[in-house]
Amino acid sequence: MLEVRGVRKSFDGFMAVCDVSVRVERGQIAAIIGPNGAGKTTLFNLVTGHLRPDAGTVVLDGRDVTGLAPHDVCRLGMGRSFQRTNIFPRLTVYENVQAAFLSHRGRGRDLWSRVARLYREETLALLGSLGLLEQADETSGFLSHGAQKQLELGIALASEPALLLLDEPTAGMSATETRETIRLVERIARERGLTLLFTEHDMEVVFSIAQRITVLHQGRVIAEGTPTEVRADVEVRRVYLGERR
Amino acid sequence: MTARLARLPWGVVVLVLAFFVPAMGSRFYTFLANDIVIWALFATSLNLLVGVTGLVSFGHAAYFGIGAYATGLLMKKLGVPFVLAFPAAGVLAGALALVFGFFCVRLTRIYFAMLTLAFAQIVWAICFKWNEVTGGEQGMPEIPYPSFDWIAELPLVGGWRTAEYFYFLTLVLVALCLWVLRRIVGSPFGRMLTTIRENAERAEFIGVNVRRYELAAFVLAGAFAGLAGGLFGIFNRGVFPDFAYWTKSSEVLIMTLLGGMGTFYGPAIGALVLILLNQQIVAYTEYWPFVLGTILVVLLFVFPGGLAGAVQAAARRVGRPRRA
Question: Which residues in A have their CB inside 8 Å of a CB on B?
Answer without folding.
Answer: 48, 50, 69-71, 74-75, 79-80, 82, 86-91, 95, 98-100, 102-104, 107-116, 118, 155-156, 158-159
